[in-house]
Structures
1.
Amino acid sequence: MHQIKRYLPILFWAKTYNRQTATSDLVAALIVTIMLIPQSLAYALLAGLPAEMGLYASILPLVAYAIFGTSRALSVGPVAVVSLMTAAAIANLGLSDPVEIAMAAVTLAFISGLILLAMGFFRLGFLANFLSHPVIAGFITASGILIAASQLKHIFGVQMHGHTLPQVLGDLVAHIGQTNLITVAIGIFAVSVLFWVRKGLKPLLLSFGLTPRNADILAKAGPVAVIVVTTLITWLFNLGEHGVKIVGQVPTGLPPLTLPNFNPGLWNQLFVSALLISIIGFVESVSVAQTLAAKKRQRIEPDQELIGLGASNVAAAVSGGYPVTGGFSRSVVNYDAGAETPAAGAFTAVGIAVATLFMTPLLHFLPKATLAATIIVAVLSLVDFSILKKAWGYSKVDFAAVAATIVLTLAFGVEVGVSAGVILSIALHLYKTSRPHVAEVGLVPDTQHFRNILRHDVETHPHLVTLRVDESLYFANARFLEDYVLNRVTCDQPIEHVILMFPAVNEVDMSALETLEELNRRLTDMGIALHLSEVKGPVMDRLKRSHLLTDLSGQVFLSQYEAWQWLKVPTPERTEQESIATDQ
Amino acid sequence: MHQIKRYLPILFWAKTYNRQTATSDLVAALIVTIMLIPQSLAYALLAGLPAEMGLYASILPLVAYAIFGTSRALSVGPVAVVSLMTAAAIANLGLSDPVEIAMAAVTLAFISGLILLAMGFFRLGFLANFLSHPVIAGFITASGILIAASQLKHIFGVQMHGHTLPQVLGDLVAHIGQTNLITVAIGIFAVSVLFWVRKGLKPLLLSFGLTPRNADILAKAGPVAVIVVTTLITWLFNLGEHGVKIVGQVPTGLPPLTLPNFNPGLWNQLFVSALLISIIGFVESVSVAQTLAAKKRQRIEPDQELIGLGASNVAAAVSGGYPVTGGFSRSVVNYDAGAETPAAGAFTAVGIAVATLFMTPLLHFLPKATLAATIIVAVLSLVDFSILKKAWGYSKVDFAAVAATIVLTLAFGVEVGVSAGVILSIALHLYKTSRPHVAEVGLVPDTQHFRNILRHDVETHPHLVTLRVDESLYFANARFLEDYVLNRVTCDQPIEHVILMFPAVNEVDMSALETLEELNRRLTDMGIALHLSEVKGPVMDRLKRSHLLTDLSGQVFLSQYEAWQWLKVPTPERTEQESIATDQ
């Protein structure tokens, strides 16, 4: 029973559900619905799909998430980046028949859903961590640019097919001659009004004496006004006849029950794209969910989030939708509007369902340029180059990762960009750890502390070399340490003892173990004893399972100071002292 | 000038070269030559190439290494594993024309040479470290088995083409009917004598009163005796007519000057194989070189070794040879025989050159079964499953890497095997570090030491949580730490302070930095102060370049004890105390 409960978070919050929470959920749902209708149409357009698929992707998936999701404010549905990745994934297939394209999108959502569910059941949420923050930031920024650029075709009313910046701009230049001026006028009007709505509307409403809350809600409805106005104009002056692309016929009625295409060839072609969409979608969704949860001292369960999002995508697939995830801006609106439980999402689903039942005819004359404008205004907020500056200041390696991700995403598209980003992050991390920081240390006079001989004025002895290793030892850096030590001891100094300080060594894998054994052998050949000090408990447990400790020419000291006390006197003198000691 | 010297180690040892060193080098060269003649023929056979290419690969490459190499005992030339990889690489091309096959081998040597030279010039020797010891051990063992199995075709005198264990055994079963009994007889005779020579010959010679040294040298010549005997038998009874495969016509004369094939398509097909051959060859060669150098307190320069081996492979390519590297057994023999400088290698080259000039006619009737026998006896010493036991005892993760490498190499061939091994090592390492060890610590009474509250009986305070992080923080484990801390503090305990102890944190990359900033924000929202203690110098320098330290709700303490002293009193009491303090 508890097992089942774990997978059904709804059982926890439904118990305490009451009128008060219902009211705030309903208000939030209303606002989000108003925001979601144009967004869902626009993102479907961005994904290269018929407008209604955006609406379908905004109904059942929200209900599924309300049942399986753990975030109380997350607003699931079509989002910009995932829509762009969907477009790229479908473009790879080189289909032309709209029915096949729609079916491919449905199948993509289904595969992505299965991947997310599998990751959830096997608790593989940590895989998302291999997308480093710089890579994500760079990817989102580059995607924002790609998306905005890709929408120019609707603003100019020309044909474009590219999925990389060079292609898109190339297409634009090539077809600029076919620009439809009325479309451009509508596009520019919509973009400028929408930008003004973002910045200028709320203050204006406030100056009209509205309460901040109402002003806020009305401002949220701003985009709807733009849609209504441009639709009316297009209808009145029959601009469709004058080359203005319009949404046109949108089927009325609830989502059709669909089944994905189970052709193995297609699954094979879509799998990598689905995997990338799943991981990017999960990362984007979980980060906003965590941020909003933290504000209310709530926790979200990442592995359960995978199941929630997986269920949503499967739901999208069986109801004629396409891949969905938790959207950032919408979730923030949902939270600000007072959503208290995932039920808010379910209510939003009802709102969208009503819209698909009664409002689709009104969308017939909606110009695509207006939708493109809403997308452009939405995604430009994703573009943020400050990450480049921040990374440059903090670490050149991280900067390289961001810069490469941005450039590769723009130049070769989202899939190459994000894959390269991940591989690069891992490669750079391995490169860094393959050259560990090793410091030769000495005793800080009158203390028991040991510090870098280059940074501090410390006590040393010519027959004693103490090296502090500042990195876990594993296959990639074991040989480096060996070379470092052997180079250090091949000198004319009368070295008797080498002490390796391990306070920062958290792991010694088998390659490193064999290297230490080898190092011990070679130092012994040179008549030098190898000692270890300050070895961590877990590492010690591990070493006890090997021959190293028995073969070690020296000893293992709990503290470096102890080692120092024991070894600081060179052998001859010590024996001397000992003899003296015995004499007394 | 010094720049040039760095790339020409010969300039260092040639100065001090004298008659004494020359003598010992000559003796070593003689013994190695006797050993190398049959080996070079056999390994050429293993690589699926004409016998003379083995001889050609044993002349110029040795001279090149003598000029550019840094090891004084390494014996460069054809070796078993690289020959097997060459066979696999050429098999990928699916060629049938012997001339094309030979040219492909020459080109492979050339590409591999260029790769090694490039790695040397750019000091990329560390790349070889990404082959973990367990992976190498597993790979060598599996290769030994593959090689031995692949030679059965010559022992049974049947056709076989497979490059994986299932294929090879399948071929054997399929063609067992065509077994040539005379060939089998020769094969079994050769194998058993060679095994006896390894174990039994030297003691026998000693019992005949030979000096250990001479006995040793004669024993080394044992394989030659087997070759002479079987060749004579084959010639006397004209066994070639009775289906015994013989080496046949081997062209007399010095290696021909050859040029590799520069067809880009071919280079494209061979590149990955050449890369794998280069890295495996380098690792095998550098490890034996280091072992032998250490015995004489000498050092080898890994990056210069790359240049030495690169030059050798280019030399092999321009003189009709195939990929070469430093062989383990031969180098040990060379060292034991008293080689003092790389000149020994040059002298060996002269010996082989003489052989190609005058001895090749004598090889005409040499049965391939004899060569196969020498290979089998040689490679079975590479097979060592003890690594499995050792790995199992030490770490299950390393065991997984060895086992997978062995299985994949046997099942899918050398290239898949070694690639999978590398990827697996990296993946397992990332997985391990993605779940860092975090210990909650308390004060050991009457000391300044802090230890794990689960392992020791320590002092703690309910308002104070101290977590020691035992891993560098980077993108793959940053979120794990965040979740860990947030889970720890979401309890009914009146927590006021969280102290993160960083004595073992050697790196904080940008993802981890942003996670710490986020953690600080969230803890602040919960009214909990975040403190850091025992932050390393390099990490501190890095953090100073960020906003973390200024935004931190708590402080950074040099020592954990200091933090403890400062924070151990809960806020209300402290203010109380302070007021008291001021009263006095």
Note: Chain B has two domains: 21-428, 438-574.
2.
Amino acid sequence: MTDRREFRDLATPDAAREAIASLDLAPDPETVPLADARGRVLAERIDAAIDVPGFDRASMDGYAVRGRDTFGADEADPVELDLVGAVHAGAAPDVTVEPGTCAEISTGAVMPDGTDAVVMVERTDEVGDGDRPDRIAIRTAVAPGDHVMSAGADIAAGGRALGPGTRLTPREIGLLSALGIDEVPVEGTPRVGIVSTGDELVRPGDDLDPARGEIYDVNSTTIAAGVEEAGGEPVFYPHAGDDYDEMERLLRRAADECDLVLSSGSTSASAVDVIYRVIEERGDLLLHGVAVKPGKPMLIGRLDRRGSDPDESGSDAGESGSDAGESAYIGLPGYPVSALTIFRTFVAPAVREAAGQPEPATSTVEGRMAVTERYGEGRLRLMPVGLLDLDSGTERPPLVYPVDKGSGATTSLVEADGVVAVDPDTEVLDAGETVEVQLFSPDVRPPSLLGAGEDDPAFNRLLDRLAAPRYLPVGSREGLRRLRDGVPDVAVVAGPTSRDVDSVVLGGWSREWGLVVPEGNPASVDGLSSLVESDLRFVNRPPDSGLRRSLDDALDRLAERRSVSKSDLTARIDGYERTVRAFESPVRRVTAGDADAGLGLRETAERLGCGFVSLGEQSVTVRAAPDRVDRDAVRELAALLDDPGADDPVGSLVGYSWDRSPDL
Amino acid sequence: MTDRREFRDLATPDAAREAIASLDLAPDPETVPLADARGRVLAERIDAAIDVPGFDRASMDGYAVRGRDTFGADEADPVELDLVGAVHAGAAPDVTVEPGTCAEISTGAVMPDGTDAVVMVERTDEVGDGDRPDRIAIRTAVAPGDHVMSAGADIAAGGRALGPGTRLTPREIGLLSALGIDEVPVEGTPRVGIVSTGDELVRPGDDLDPARGEIYDVNSTTIAAGVEEAGGEPVFYPHAGDDYDEMERLLRRAADECDLVLSSGSTSASAVDVIYRVIEERGDLLLHGVAVKPGKPMLIGRLDRRGSDPDESGSDAGESGSDAGESAYIGLPGYPVSALTIFRTFVAPAVREAAGQPEPATSTVEGRMAVTERYGEGRLRLMPVGLLDLDSGTERPPLVYPVDKGSGATTSLVEADGVVAVDPDTEVLDAGETVEVQLFSPDVRPPSLLGAGEDDPAFNRLLDRLAAPRYLPVGSREGLRRLRDGVPDVAVVAGPTSRDVDSVVLGGWSREWGLVVPEGNPASVDGLSSLVESDLRFVNRPPDSGLRRSLDDALDRLAERRSVSKSDLTARIDGYERTVRAFESPVRRVTAGDADAGLGLRETAERLGCGFVSLGEQSVTVRAAPDRVDRDAVRELAALLDDPGADDPVGSLVGYSWDRSPDL
């Protein structure tokens, strides 16, 4: 392994920003049809080339008159004028209005020669023959200009309509339409090549072989979506392995075709090494390693284009000049949350600037720390955090809590809403302290409800009935601990619990649990004793889970009956320590033939076609923090627990029944 | 004219909302590729179908070991283990680690059989032959599970990944990728047909004949952009004239193809009448006329689809069932600001809901009224307002000022940022009062600088150097008046002024003005006397303009010299009262042959190829309100006036020179 990866001289975050600012990733302006211009940014000023309106225009339905002919007219003493014709919108007037006459006119029509005002139809009467009136009684006086928009009064030819840098929303598109413009000069869209590296990566949708260590490529799609959001156009390149020649070919192709090349994906040192060598040999490495956590292995540089390489292209240097000889390059860290954080913090602003797009108004929010957080590594930390908007509609900032699931967890992507930049000098963020959260996307919204606790299929279905909840399936014990620490609104607790946490029970149900076995129960498992006595491969759940707690209680009772210690029993269970994370996981091990028995629910066993040996029922309760019971989303959940309505998400599950006991 | 247009029974705004809510415009959910899913909304819950990671995964580069083999190891007393092989990311392990041995492992690789922890490479040393070390010294103890992410630890198969209704931002797309999902079920995109009506409308880009009263179609493009912004797909239909059969055919084609049909465009009563008849005869009119200003003539209804009409289609009723027999229909008012206001207030929420999209966080802002506004018509008023964010970065809400340029002005589209809904019972909004502004688009940002006053080509070029300014070319006199009333930051004042308004002069220049005549000056105009004495067709500027003020002063002096009254002189100028709006307008009248002389600048005359007879120079000053001089944008403007840098926007114009006199 090379020592390059040790990043002995880390650059400061500011140096990284400067290095990125020194890169040129702005594309040339382009012209787009007006219909495609929404969200784009004007590259130059637009002046009106025509008068709007282009003619003196009636702004009411009524009669076009000479204002002075109506002077003195009122309800009691109308003036009568000869009707000489009519003018409609979209037609050239074919009448001339002499003194003492008038013409019928529609809103939007051209004022006929001789007229300077319009009398609203409501202030007139037809006089004479009913079918073809030839005189009009005018019951009000109008001044010249009344109910007329004169030519150019809206905007005149030569007037400044929109300035450069204007972002085109529907209203600007409206004004451009009024000027007859159907193509607009806008800032170009930076093309951002995404090169995904690492032998282990598989594109979503393709088959995965976990035994070979394959995982789905998360970064390419995540970063591509971020590029789009920042106003760039993502361009995907095929996965590159860790081979130098292949990587070189791919990076230079991307450099030829794009304004910026991002590499991302692999966490393996060898892939990073290969990229490092390509950039050093075929480009210009500006910076390697930044004092920021996460993101240390960030690379910033330039990549030569093939067209600029004399030994490859000779004099045929392509359409662009010498400054087109290179593309910007940024290497992102491999873990998804790290990659998105570094993209959000360092790269997205550069893409936005190149696209001429302003920073979105909603890209940061203020919040207050829910818990105290300590840190002391002496480099900038971009701490992933979740948000909970406790007092929506009030001025109180949302609650901010750290999300630290460890590097590499992709679920942190949706459990965190953004990052707080913690200064290298800051060692403690106190609970209650105000912090600024840089949201992962301007579209990120805090969840309506935050829950934590047991992983339960009925609760999952209840969550579907709520708008934008967030639930962390951390197990019953950990859920209660977090409730006590003041972060979630509710905890879901299954089975017996020793923790005494102040909470309000919103509702609950019971679920049947036991041993999940292959279909037909081939080993004739009939209870816990089979597990202890037969040579069964068992799969357990972790200690935080409510199911495990019930199993341990049952083992305690069995040990007591047999007058042995519990550890005597567990030592005889092959797989007691083999724990898997979710409620379905043990069942899936059984169906895959990797285990003879697993800890699980009747619901899951039956749904996945397994046999089931019941060991009992356990209660599941939904508990709210006492100071959160009045929140809208908590009330909504409580109401749902009280009356789930049609298609009962709890009662309709096998082995489930509502617990309506009064002490709940 | 029919009396339908008088809307005798106006519905309440709430009744209009209810009528729209009763329409079904939600399309069916659809499945889209993940790459196109950004911004869409999940139609159903997504559970994990696989464990992530799919295997026990090394989360560091180092050596895979049995944790218990390292117990007791430390820097002083390392443990040595036999190196039996290596495992890389993306490869199946081909080693088994027996007690006392270890294997090199890369981040992301599969933990080989027999191992349960990773020792970081930094805490190890190679022992033995330099080229091919066969033993590794371990300088730290690790516990089972250290630096290993176990299978399913991120998310396990069966776990709830994302709930229905989740909006897909980059991070959700990341999690879906991790699950291997490349297609997602999302809420459908409502198709919104836009039928533009009125004989007078011409599509932007086509030729316009103003003499026939033609204008460009503003509403279609504006509303289409609004539909896109709300999550719908706009579908344009060809312009319809005022013919019943053509309109019927068009509306029913749109109903066949869309979830919602909007008609919009014409302000003429006859087009509205035709639509009204089509809806009554070929659909179902729910509501006609709403007590809201603007927007009274709103129509809400349903349109039969042709497929549902037995005498047209017989039994061949098409692919969809009976509920597919109609489409929702809403008729918008004809004036652009009215149409966008009604769309924003009543229609966009329905389109968003049909698309499953939440209301954008930035769709409303709080502001405080800059001026007192009176109103008393007894119906809901949606008052167009502009915003000015005086204290960006602070908690003070932005300044809100009414924009009332009269119905039909398309420039109001960009001069107003949104609307304030003024309750029918509210007769006065006091200056300083807090109001809620519904922005026209979530992307609308208040301008950085608000200016008002003289229309001047040099100032237009200065504006191009500022980010997001707004300038209202209302004339010098009106600009000063508004500065006094506390709305704009700066006023641009040309020529003599009688107003005494407390202001700080930021800088200024002088510009040469006079009479613009055809090229070569065929009538040999040599000054004001020619205007008075010859039979020239003159074009003037309005009294608010600084140019007009200088002309009037010069006429005063001429009258004095001749011992006549000024009105004696002006009565002899053919066209003294013929005023046009912008500084280029008189010049354009001259070039078009519609006038023999016009009031204008040497700059404009020379640029547009006209002759010019100088009448003098006038000063132009940029004046700031005293309480605004410290605003960033005002300072920036002042700096620019002080030192415009290269490509001087003032000094480079013909007839212009900077005024650097010390009293400025």
Note: The longest strand of chain B covers residues 504-517.
3.
Amino acid sequence: MDPVELATSCAMPPVLSKSAVAEHPKTLRSAHLKTDTYGVAAVAPYQAMPVAGPVITHHKSSALPVVEPHPELTEEEREARIAEIIGNYMKKLSERTHLHMGYPYNLEFDYGLLEGLTKFSINNLGDPFIESNYGVHSREFEVGVLNWFARLWEIDEEEYWGYITTCGTEGNLHGIYVGRENFPDGVLYASAESHYSVFKAARMYRMQAEKIPTLESGEINYDDLKAALIANRGKPAVLNLNIGTTVKGAVDDVDRVLAVLKETGYTEDKFFIHCDGALFGMMMPFLSRDAPMVTFRKPIGSVSVSGHKFVGAPVPCGVVITRFKYVMALSSDVEYLNSRDATIMGSRNGHAPIYLWYTLTRKGYEGMRRDVERCMRNAHVLKQMLESAGVKTMLNELSNTVVFERPREEAFVRKWQLACEGDIAHVIVMPNITVEKLEDFVADYVQSRARVSIAAAKRVASEAKAAEEDA
Amino acid sequence: MDPVELATSCAMPPVLSKSAVAEHPKTLRSAHLKTDTYGVAAVAPYQAMPVAGPVITHHKSSALPVVEPHPELTEEEREARIAEIIGNYMKKLSERTHLHMGYPYNLEFDYGLLEGLTKFSINNLGDPFIESNYGVHSREFEVGVLNWFARLWEIDEEEYWGYITTCGTEGNLHGIYVGRENFPDGVLYASAESHYSVFKAARMYRMQAEKIPTLESGEINYDDLKAALIANRGKPAVLNLNIGTTVKGAVDDVDRVLAVLKETGYTEDKFFIHCDGALFGMMMPFLSRDAPMVTFRKPIGSVSVSGHKFVGAPVPCGVVITRFKYVMALSSDVEYLNSRDATIMGSRNGHAPIYLWYTLTRKGYEGMRRDVERCMRNAHVLKQMLESAGVKTMLNELSNTVVFERPREEAFVRKWQLACEGDIAHVIVMPNITVEKLEDFVADYVQSRARVSIAAAKRVASEAKAAEEDA
């Protein structure tokens, strides 16, 4: 029996009767799904799309119902059915992992030694530096990893505070929150190509936000930033700088921004800079020192990166590091609130720190550097391959994100799991992307383009033939 | 070589020199750790403590440094050393898991069949109902689980929206955010015994918040709530109700609160109720129908529960369900923001939904009910054992949280990993807590009390002897 049938045929106990619906005017989810733009289905590359809009009928998730025990099935048959579902799912995961190209996730890792850890409910609830009474935690790994990042970004172990987050968004939510709590009337500045979590933070935190236009590269437009800073003079500035934008991998130049702040009269007690380093913040320290470095030697307030991106991990995670003096603002006493913990989340995944510790320890600084170099090299290989095949590309100097024309075949986009925005798509050349894989991809892309071109030409021909017949 | 030595002896490359510290006045983390109250070390039970305060020297986390490759060690020796660290850590996890009593986590689960899943980077980034292009996701399991909860809380599949969160805090942050976006000038009402994330949300979201006193049981004081609602008449109400408070397991009565809202003239278009069901919200549906049920048949706005609590999972997670019509407010267009996704986090753990799906499927509705019954029964067994041994206890009728006098021996508190607040401690009788374990615990507790009493008596005696000698 199919699991869907199975679940449908065995209704849950009486509490769950179908008539059990509140008597409000109905607002149906499936009638409000997504907008459709650009001719192809608008699947948001990073899902920052409205939940409401005209109906579409594809890209809706399927559901695997929770399968209740059923009189028709023995316990063994049921267990076998569950094992089959999981087995099929794992096969799908293998295939999807093999073909993936579009998201900045390093899918190559070997955590075999750590497999037994899923027997334990590991939880680092609260502050990483102070143990709670819950003993099943991994703070020793977490603090080890945080110290590693503190050294990477050049801040004394005693002067930083930070934690391992659930994802890049939590790092940005935390950085901007710390900025706001230190500058309660601060205006948030961020480029229009910032990750969507940045403007989500502004909305959540009720901050005035200035969305600054970008240069062609995707970098923040320094002149526009300057004008906005001048216009809001009198209010402190909370700035989000992108160390690699989501779509084009563009790096905002910290030094130029610091110069703009100086020119416009913002002294260090009047601004807070959060660096969103999602992917590239983890790569830049390993490049030659000509790059505009992110370091706490400069007057920045916080840096965050993702852990499942460049390092690679089964679970999404990230790291945020700030100055301890700034995080103290979160513990100021607000009489009617009295909420004074310093992380965004409460319970915190205790497996993530162990994954990060394990990879950093096994690869070491040198291993990380080699991975970065190979990615940068292979990004150029992809760019050259595409250009030699006649495809226009863009690759920022400080980036492994190769941008090119959005493929017109939706099936191709889905097959290679490309993130698209407007009329562009990108491949992010991560450590698991080999030259062989890039070769396959380019051949497939060129064939997809050829199919689209032939179809377009055929349409013209058939229109001409129809016109001929009519004439 | 010890890993700490090892890491210290192999400095990272030049970028990481020790002098690399920004020249600001120093604020040292270890000089500002925690407050010390109640005579024993104040380890926050759920870590909702200020990060700043007088120095304490214990409960500071240790750090396992990331171990760089080292010329003195061969690759094999290094791998062996890493395996030894992980092996020792797993032993510690086993011991700590065995002795745990204080937190509402079900530590008994068997996800052996799912172990291979940690080979994959599973990520449900964005909305659960609309697939992103990233193919390595588990939305089919997520939507299956969400549908199960929708049936549990009696809302039509087409009328709800929800997602699987990282933890209980994210559920509360989401519920209250949805409340605020539907009622931008809404005042937040919650009892003083609410989880700390509730008032954290008020601070993050810049909402006016009213902290309502509680009854002795830990329930919200309905008279005080009424007075506060009257005082703020004219502004909509966003209410957080506790379906089991963190410390005493007290359940706010949804029906009484609805009656209070009616009496004070708040119509359904003037309030939003979020139910924080962390632990007990997952248990209450399985009790007899005399309990004041949480259901979307009543005019509530959202419900959240944790997944790692009653269900049990290796990673913290949770579920939040709201009405689709309410979540649409998150997608309204705000010109300078343009952030319109509906989850708090961006990347989302894709393993968590599979754990939940697997347990719910294997246990089925009946299995869950049996677990709830056993926990309720064993909570009463613990209460009776403690009382028969002369220990005063408290156990709310709708609760598996047994509250008693805080043990004076800190080592005892740490051994059994009890969550304490002020002068009380509690044991939460989860499915993994057997009667045998409770027996061990009570015997140990009574012995601990005896040691403390004897020591106190001895102090009196020695003071008397000293006075005698002086006389």
Note: Residues 1-23, 34-58, 332-340 of chain A have pLDDT under 50 and may be disordered.
